[in-house]
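Tokens as discussed.
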């Protein structure tokens, strides 16, 4: 009868344990890529998970809306601009001449959520982008110039036009910006403080 050494017994026991563990482990089903029902393209579960948490095209979201008026031939504060973001509205009046005597007048306040929502609902970056940078003859014959600017994450577009003609392609947005400018100018005109 063949004798087994302690070393052989231990190796045999260890082999049995490993074989038993392998036999009881169940193979996981292979991961197969799924086909997107809308595009028919194959997408992995990881890619689908990433797509579900990735915000949709953040570069196309409006970051800021600008509006302004300027007059080339005037004696004091001739350039007026209003910039609006989701957080803040900033009104600035600049003089054409003698900045020491006529320093910039700046006022800011928080943007109401309803105001930002309304303006972004009326604004169309695609429409503004399709227009030339200047329409008509802004500030000819002392008529003044008016402008609207929309800014996204990576690009901005400003269109300058004659105030009398307006901007029919963004008429509702222009009407709201003019109204907001008048309200803020009236509220802050006496309270506007020059920059130090």
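Sequence:
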């Amino acid at each position: 009868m063949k004798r087994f050494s302690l070393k052989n017994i231990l190796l045999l026991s260890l082999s049995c344990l490993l074989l038993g563990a392998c036999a009881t482990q169940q193979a996981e089903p292979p991961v197969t890529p799924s086909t997107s029902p809308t595009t028919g393209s194959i997408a992995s579960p990881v890619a689908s998970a990433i797509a579900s948490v990735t915000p949709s095209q953040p570069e196309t979201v409006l970051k800021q809306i600008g509006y302004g008026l300027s007059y080339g031939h005037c004696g004091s504060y001739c350039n007026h601009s209003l910039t609006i973001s989701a957080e803040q509205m900033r009104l600035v009046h600049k003089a054409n001449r003698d900045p020491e005597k006529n320093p910039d007048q700046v006022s800011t306040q928080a943007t109401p959520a309803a105001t930002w929502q309304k303006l972004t609902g009326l604004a169309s970056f695609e429409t503004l982008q399709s227009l030339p940078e200047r329409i008509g003859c802004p500030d000819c014959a002392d008529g003044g110039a008016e402008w609207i600017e929309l800014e996204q994450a990576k690009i901005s577009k400003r269109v300058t036009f004659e105030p009398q003609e307006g901007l029919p392609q963004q008429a509702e947005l222009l009407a709201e910006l003019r109204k907001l400018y008048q309200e803020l100018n009236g509220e802050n005109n006496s309270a506007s403080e020059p920059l130090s």
